[in-house]
Amino acid sequence: MSHPGPRDGDLTVLVKSAGAGDQDAWDELVGRYTNLLWSVARGYRLEQGEAADVVQVAWLRLVEHLPRVRDPERIGGWLVTTVRRECLQVINARRRRGLPVDDKVLAAIPDHGAPIDSELLAREELADMWRAFESVPPRCQRLLRMLMADPAPSYQDVAVALDMPVGSIGPTRARCLGHLRTLLEPGGQPLEAPDE
């Protein structure tokens, strides 16, 4: 069963209106898909600036192709595919230049703000959660990142982005969350990959 989109509306009309220059329709498209595109880009562990560039390129490509879109209902999948291709180009260019593949340098920049105990505790808990998240299989990470996007993408868009059947998204999500919960328990150990 397909998961409903974040805002119901006739996507065909929305895409055609945006293609005809309707700013409200364009804003609706951007609002509907931007967080999904960001989750895909961040799933490739791009730096913040690179991810922003990739998402921007996807929107520019859509502007170029909007008047010629034949199947507006598949616009989400088209955008996701465009982001994936752009991410791979960024990674390949980075490797050719001998640059690092993650943004640990940016994460190491000190924060000179006044320390607050509750903020520190929240950060530690968040850090524990992300460490556990990085221990689940990559396929789980990609699925959970997409499903955490706000607004949530449709299951159809997630299926296209991850090349998996729509019917397996819910059960795989449940197994991935179970795996993550196990890792967050005291003494939790990584399990066999639940989705491979």
Question: What does this protein structure show overall?
Answer:
This protein is an all-alpha fold. Helices cover 65% and strands 0% of the residues. The longest helix has 22 residues, at 75-96. The protein starts with 10 loop residues before the first helix and ends in a 12-residue tail after the last helix.
Write a brief caption for the model:
The chain is mainly α and 196 residues long. Helix content is 65%, strand content 0%. Helix 4 packs parallel to helix 8 (155-162).
Which secondary structure elements does this structure contain, and how are they paired or packed?
Elements: H1 11-19, H2 23-43, H3 48-65, H4 75-96, H5 104-107, H6 117-135, H7 138-147, H8 155-162, H9 169-184
